[in-house]
Amino acid sequence: MPDITMCNTKTCPVKLSCFRHIAKAAEYQSFCDFTNLVTIGLNGHECRMFISGYKITTSNKSNI
């Protein structure tokens, strides 16, 4: 069980590489939509709540 508030945004462009979005939720898990914290920075889209995870590609989708 991840001991974090997970992200359930539908529109974030970095959600597929963020641990808050891709981690497996526990039975009693807190969620939040962090869409308003996404900005466009020097390196593209950035989210203040981003936790580095791994990027989902067609070769590792089954790993989630």
Question: How would you portray this structure in words?
Answer:
With 64 residues, the chain is mostly beta strands. It has one domain (6-59). Helices cover 6% and strands 19% of the residues. It contains 1 helix and 4 strands; from the N terminus they run E-H-E-E-E. It has one helix at residues 19-22, and strands at residues 6-7, 31-32, 38-41, 44-47. It has a two-stranded parallel sheet. Strand 1, helix 1 and strand 2 form a beta-alpha-beta unit. It is globular.
Topology:
Layout (H helix, E strand, L loop, with lengths): L5 E2 L11 H4 L8 E2 L5 E4 L2 E4 L17
Parallel strand pairs: 1-2
Antiparallel strand pairs: 3-4
Give a quick rundown of the structure:
The protein is mainly beta and 64 residues long. It contains 1 helix and 4 strands; from the N terminus they run βαβββ.
